[in-house]
Amino acid sequence: MTNVLNVYNPGTGDYIASVEMDTFEAIEEKITASHIAFLSWSKTSAIERSSLLRKWHALILTNKTELAALITAENGKPLKEAQGEVLYAAGYIEWFAEEAKRVYGRTIPASTTDKRMLVTREAVGPVAAITPWNFPAAMITRKAAPALAAGCTFIIKPAPDTPLTAIRLVELAYEAGIPEDVIQYVNADGEMVGKIFTDHPHIRKISFTGSTPVGKLLIKQSADSVKHVSMELGGHAPLIVDEYADIKRAVEQAVASKFRNAGQTCVCANRLLVHAAIKEEFLHRFTQAVSQLRVGVGSKDVNIGPIINKKGFEKIVAQLEDAKKKGASVRTGGSYDQDDEKGYYFVQPTVLDQVTTDMDIMHEETFGPVAPITTYTDIDEAIRIANDTPYGLAAYFFTENYRRGLYIAENLKYGIIGWNDGGPSAVQAPFGGMKESGVGREGGIEGIEPYLETKYISIGI
Ligand code: SIN
User: Fold this and answer.
1) Which of 135, 162, 260 is the pocket-test mutation for ligand 1 (most atoms within 8 Å of CB)?
2) What is the distance between the alpha carbons of residues 307 and 264, in angstroms, rounded to a whole number?
3) Residue-wise pLDDT tens digits, 338-351
4) 4-233+437-460 has which fold?
5) In the beta sheet, which residues pair with residue 241?
6) Tens digits of residue pLDDT in 392-433
7) How many percent of the chain have pLDDT more than 70?
């Protein structure tokens, strides 16, 4: 009997579909096919690859309604957010269709006249990617598009919660004319796939988005065959509201950052540090805005969908209860809607006041719609607290004072800074973290680099 993976709607617990699981042997076969396809794909012209990526981009746009509905069904995010994600995902393909044509080498002036020195760039080889459930489309295209643009072949292992979007994206790639072995997917146990990908000599690069512990394991496993790695790992984003902030803007952007995808993004603000002088006003307005967010099944007109699964839900509840036990007060939210039998979990958007640095929520990534607020009086203290974490993905701050702003931006140890901006992610900008939040960047002109090798050719004449 074929082993299957059942996919359920996290907002209702309803069964959606089953997908076939790949065996060890099937995955090995796909890697071999990827290796063989690389020999020809890497020799195609950049213009040809660019044109195929453009066709893929166009087909995603043609099918955007279906794709958004699929994302909402398997991930649970509100339909409006899913529609936004489809455009965001397609945007990476369009961006890298262009970047394919800009992979430049260089010549170096030699020390003698009887030499020419060239530097060329070439594709690293077959790439294996392990992608998360929180952006079932965009986290695939952000890796696949630069890989294909560079001339690499690509195998995706999507998250078990959201394999359907991945499958549909690959089908559309085939429809666009991208050869079947150039982009493939596998569905199988994560630990097994991770081991096969990292052990296999034909796979030359691992690209992963997910938790820091799994990222560290993949880096260790990749060491034996010295693979290239790109790691987009956990975050614990601080959001500082300075005494010189435009409070209305800070509230609006803090809500957007904290509650995007029900708080389930690596770059969501995880803890709010608010200057004591403006705290009461900020807290009042923020609480009011959060209490208006509607929670429910993503296909309805809501702002906050379900938590992806029981494990994610339990983590949020544990942090919330720990904070309450240690003295935090709930300004709005704080309740749950849970049905273990049906398999759905919702957390009411929550604002916590009187939060202190000994609470777990001030140290761990929450991945849920809970906003803990603490105060500060000295900006250096706020920066110290903001940087006091092994993570370094995204950080936000709000100030209208440009000297203060530059000072904060330059002293935060984070790969992405949102200054008066709760949504800095963009296809044309580098996305990635410092410290234990990752290695490498995705998107922007930086995003194709991790898929390229540098070759130096010294010619005697
Ligand atoms: C993530 O959560 O890892 C991605 C978020 C984004 O691209 O903005």
Assistant:
1) 135
2) 8
3) 999 999 999 999 99
4) Aldehyde Dehydrogenase; Chain A, domain 1 (3.40.605)
5) 274, 398
6) 999 999 999 999 999 999 999 999 999 999 999 999 999 999
7) 100
**How many angstroms separate the alpha carbon of residue 179 from the centre of ligand 1?**
28
Cα-based distances in Å from 248 to 169, 375, 399: 39, 18, 12
Total residue count of the chain as it appears in this document = 461
Residues of the chain with CATH 3.40.605.10: 4-233+437-460
For 237-426, CATH gives 3.40.309.10
Q: Whose CA is nearest to atom 6 of ligand 1?
A: 425
Catalytic residue status for 364: no
* Closest atom, ligand 1, to C-alpha of 265: 2
Backbone φ and ψ of 387, nearest 5°: -85, -5
Q: Which residues sit opposite 418 in a β-bridge?
A: 396
Stretch(es) of the chain classified as CATH 3.40.309.10: 237-426
Q: Report the chain's mean pLDDT, rounded to a whole number.
A: 98
What does the pLDDT average to over 84-105? 98
**Beta-sheet strand order (sheet of 115-123):** 106-108, 115-123, 452-460
CA distance 260 to 424: 13
141 pLDDT tier (thresholds 50, 70, 90): very high
Selected catalytic residue, list 74, 85, 94, 232: 232
- 232 Cα nearest atom in ligand 1: 3
Which atom of ligand 1 is nearest the CA belonging to 138? 7
Each residue's pLDDT tens digit, 17-71: 999 999 999 999 999 999 999 999 999 999 999 999 999 999 999 999 999 999 9
Q: Which of 75, 265, 308, 414 to mutate to test the pocket of ligand 1 (most atoms within 8 A of CB)?
A: 265
DSSP 116-152: EEEEEEEE---EEEE--SSSTTHHHHHHHHHHHHHT-
**1: pLDDT strictly greater than 80:** no
Are the C-beta atoms of 75 and 300 separated by less than 8 Å? no
- In whole angstroms, give the CA distance from residue 454 to residue 64: 37
**From 85, 207, 267, mutation site for ligand 1 pocket: most ligand atoms within 8 A of C-beta:** 267
Phi, psi of 418 (to 5 degrees): -105, 110
Task: Tell me, yes or no, if 453 is annotated catalytic.
Answer: no
- CA–centroid distance, 266 to ligand 1, in Å, is 6
